[in-house]
Amino acid sequence: MNLILLAIESSPTLTLLERALRASGYGVAIASDANRLEQALLETTPALLVIHETLNGSSGLELSIATLERFPTLPIVLFADHDNPALMKQCMKAGVSDFLAPPLRIDEIVQAVQRSQKRAEQMGDWVRREVRRSTASLEQRINEMETLMKLGRTINSSLDEDGVLTSVVTAAVELTGAEEGQLLLLDDATGDLYMRAGRNFEESFARTFRLPVKDSMAGQVLHTGQALSFCEDSPSKIKTAFLVYSLVYVPLKAKDQVIGVLGVDNRQNKRPFTQHHELLMSVLADYAVIAIENARAYENSKRERAKLETTIESVQDGIVLLDKEQRILLINPAARKIFGLGNQLLTGQPVLQTISHHEFVEIMGSISDNPLKHYEIALDDGQVFNCQYAPIPEIGAVVTLEDITHLKMLDRLKSDFIHTISHDLRSPLTAIMGYVELLERVGPLNDQQRAFVKNVQNSTQNITALVNDLLDLGRIESGFDDRKDEISLEGIIRYTLDNLNQQIVEKKQILALNIAADLPPLRGNPIRLRQMVDNLLVNAVKYTPVGGTLTVNLRAEGEQVVFEVVDTGIGIPVADQAHIFEKFYRASNAPKNTPGTGLGLAIVKSIVENHQGRIWLDSVIGRGSKFVVVLPASRAETETAEK
User: Fold this and answer.
1) Smaller CB count within 10 Å for the chain: N or C?
2) Is residue 306 in some structural domain?
């Protein structure tokens, strides 16, 4: 029994409609307001909705529109108290099936219901036909996608150029329903197109096939880079004994250069090719180009590998190529000489069992903890090498060893020179500061004179700070600060943060302090460690914008203490990260108006290294930086000394 939903308030009209519909064999449900209508639509499946123009204060037309948005195939009849042409026009425009107005007769009501149901049935039939048509089209598209995906996997997993190109041509024939397919490439020697791969051609025909670029349709595609297709009632000549009714040619484009043509044709039937076929052919052409480039890249890589091996053998820097398990793939004569390995066969040997130099072993053991992968190795004869570790995706890593003995000597000379100059500057700077402070005692100063004096004080203080940093760095590098006490790094961190609290509050920065319990003490110079912590935290506050976040972590890992300073500041460019711990080096994106000597991080690095620790950073432009310091715990140092 068809259910008719009446959305009408209690009235004689409702009684009339209900009686007429029940008498005609329809089931009836009643909704007297918008809420009951909503509930009825959810709980039942009416064949028709009859709604009054006003339903308990709600617009019947608006309720109809909202209902059609959710149930577009539900027929709706709107009933009005008076004949209203404007309302009827609005109803028809909104998709309402029918419009009723007094006077009403029972036969008119039944006819309106039947008309609306018939329209709904017609709409349902149309929807079902469209669904079947769309489903068939969708299945075809799915089959096409599966073919393309399968071909893509073949291309990515195979270096067999012949097999892959044949698969491309086969897919072109199958997806377009063509009789034949061919892939033509340009012969650089003759300037002609030849058939690199074909489907449904005789082998002798394909082997001897040559097509001049000039005055040929394939040549036109090669020159213009545009696809070409046709379908004729009479066959067209491609070349002698090669006549076709319909054809599609698409270009093979490699880096904006057309290197060939992919085509399908029909020699026996006149079935045309569609734009969709042309689109599929273009996708297949891209696959073919990838296969060709992969094969060429493989051949080029073989040649380049041979060149690389020759180059590596001849360079003066030591080079060790490792696989993912740190086994030696290649080691050049320079590296053999550095580690005294002679001419023995080392390929496939674990590097840590082959090279026993203690610093190299320590470096290889700490690779996973140190993203910078930049170290120094000192030999017993005084030579110093810059050791760099660079991961190579899918292969492993390469270790390079550059002799920097002369650079270290120059650096020591420079440090001695700077130390001497710094000492010589201290006395005149102290005198300048003293005389500046005495100026006001000599006599009153006007505003301009005070400004001049203030500028002199600021400049002198900046130079004094630079001199102090230089002297500190000199003392640290020379090893004069050999005082070692058992100290708590937690106390130093909290002390420094207390001193920085006002700056953090003024910049509205969020501080997250994470200090683990039961931290082991450190054995070190309390003044220098405080300087290290201060420099890192001051930098974090300085380069983090207003409202940013600072995170300070302190924890124990084995026999080590790990100190991390994380900020959401401006970040450090990748190009600067390898140099950021060098003297006088400042990041290229550091604001020009931000004071600094470029020595802070150099001092930090020297302090960390003097405490047998390590430091590195991880930074992303615009997202912030993370500095990690790892120091040996006091008990670890004691146990090492006892051994």
Assistant:
1) C
2) no
